[in-house]
Specification:
By secondary structure, the protein is α/β, with parallel strands linked by helices. The chain has 15 helices and 16 strands. It has helices at about 60-65, 75-80, 85-90, 90-95, 110-115, 140-150, 170-190, 205-215, 235-250, 265-270, 280-290, 320-325, 325-335, 340-365, 370-380, and strands at about 15-20, 30-35, 40, 45, 70-75, 100-105, 120, 125-130, 135-140, 155, 195-200, 225, 255-260, 275-280, 290-295, 295-300. Helix 9 links the parallel strand 12 (about 225) and strand 13 (about 255-260). Helix 6 crosses helix 7. The longest helix is centred in the C-terminal third of the chain and has 28 residues, at about 340-365. It starts with 16 loop residues before the first strand and ends in a 14-residue tail after the last helix.
RNA sequence: GGGUAGGUUGAGCAGGUGGUGAGCUCCGCUGACUGUAGAUCAGCCGUCUUCGACUGUGGGGGUUCGAUUCCCUCCCUGCCCA
């Protein structure tokens, strides 16, 4: 077995540095986040690469799409191939051949999404592995240890997101547990070449969100993440919650990351409320299911109307799929269950999403944010049940 | 020509030995998807006036209160024999 060289030279003592300037657009900011593996322009979107791969895409594809930073996952990588194996192979960057910045999620979201496969206690969470049922224990300390072994540029604290529709007491209990776990993550964190972000919870309850911001912002974390949104609540509730968080954060200079968002219009809602970073599976997941995001709106390439459509997926896009292939061709690949369909669709959607973020940054720079939003809304606005769950005021 | 096994909703099948065949899998048509148990899932997929109704088991005829089932006949397909 070949001996692998040690992991990338770490930039000791330089985890991340965030500089941002206010814009003329409400609370929106333009910024730069410097990490050991490169600089991130904000607002920025992070494609999700849960299992050390953004599904269907190579690192080269990601680079061509304009990706500056990607996300990996503690829970999945700890199960397979294990954090220790990745560490012995030189860390996550080397393992997956992505030399740009990586943010790792802590496994907190799996506490939510694998609700039927886990048991929570105050010390941590015990999962029955979704792969083989074997027991997997995640505590704040272990979540940090795994992320340090992976060697991501940014680690996340271990949290407990909940459905905001749960009874107030349950949302509060999870939030308070999240705060205690954040402090333990902080205490356990050792790597000086890795940043650590804290996560605000509290559902859509204004008072709880304020308390959560206070508790998390008090910690010397390198960034503030907003968790527990985009899990079924209305757009209005998400926006209202982001307003509460922005008010509570005030002029806190740290980078702000909205976890798990979003769709094209979600970016506008969040950016104008001061969010700098996003991640979401949506662009890549819907791509694999045939939905393409374009300047004409959402297209489902499996629809009959595309069978003989000779045009590009998006006439305004310069990605590999749009430069070289017709809608008819990609539609055929989907119908034939050809693997290339997933790559081309993912290449396009990631390119589209990252180009949208770049356009948002330009628009913030020249004051045309609202005009850009109009253009996107004209294609992406969809009816929503009016005033479902309201923001709780207590 | 003889024998034999078959002919069920686009395809492939299940079922049904006189008492209401619309069941499955593909294909097809839509929709959903937000820190990835998801190249997944859901609905529809004979016709109509669609919370229901009607029609439909190769064609025709017969027996019967009633036939997918029993009888006659014809057509078509596979295989075996000549």
């Amino acid at each position: 077995m070949t001996a692998h060289p040690p992991s990338e030279p770490s930039v000791a003592g330089t985890p991340v540095r965030f500089t941002a300037t206010a814009t003329r657009t409400r609370r929106a900011r333009l910024g730069r986040l410097e990490t050991p593996h490169g600089t991130i322009d904000t607002p920025q979107f992070m494609p999700v690469g849960t299992q050390a791969t953004v599904k269907a895409l190579t690192p080269g594809d990601l680079r061509a799409a304009g990706a500056q930073v990607i996300l990996g996952n503690t829970y999945h990588l700890a199960l397979r191939p294990t954090a220790e194996v990745i560490a012995r192979l030189g860390g996550l960057h080397r393992f997956m051949s992505w030399d740009g910045p990586i943010l790792t999620d802590s496994g907190g979201f799996q506490v939510f999404s694998l609700a039927h496969l886990r048991r929570i206690d105050d010390d941590g969470v015990t999962f029955a592995s979704h792969l083989d049922g074997s027991e997997q224990r995640l505590t704040p300390e272990r979540a940090i240890e795994i992320q340090e072994l992976l060697g991501s540029d940014i680690a996340m604290t271990f949290d407990q997101p909940v459905d905001p529709a749960l009874p107030h007491a349950e949302v509060q209990t999870a939030m308070e547990r999240t705060h205690r776990w954040a402090a333990r993550c902080m205490a356990a964190h050792r790597r000086v070449d890795q940043a650590l972000f804290g996560i605000v919870q509290g559902g859509t309850d204004a008072a709880l969100r304020r308390r959560s911001v206070a508790a998390i912002a008090e910690l010397p974390v390198d960034g503030i993440a907003v968790g527990g949104l985009s899990v079924g609540e209305s757009k209005a509730a998400m926006a209202a919650t982001l307003d509460v968080v922005a008010d509570a954060l005030g002029d806190d200079p740290r980078v702000r990351y909205l976890m798990g968002v979003g769709s094209p219009l979600d970016f506008f809602i969040a950016v104008e409320r001061g969010i700098d970073l996003f991640d979401c599976v949506l662009p890549t997941r819907v791509a694999r299911n045939g939905q393409l995001w374009t300047s004409e709106g959402r297209l489902n390439l499996r629809n009959a109307r595309f069978v003989e459509d000779p045009g590009p997926i998006d006439p305004d896009c310069a990605c590999e799929a749009c430069r070289n292939h017709s809608r008819a061709y990609v539609a055929h690949l989907f119908r034939a269950d050809e693997l290339l369909a997933y790559r081309l669709a993912s290449v396009h959607n990631v390119t589209y999403t990252l180009a949208l973020m770049a356009n948002i940054r330009s628009a913030l720079a020249d004051g045309s944010f609202d005009a850009l939003r109009e253009v996107v809304a004209a294609r992406y606005q969809r009816p929503e049940a009016p005033d479902k769950p309201l923001l709780t005021q207590r």
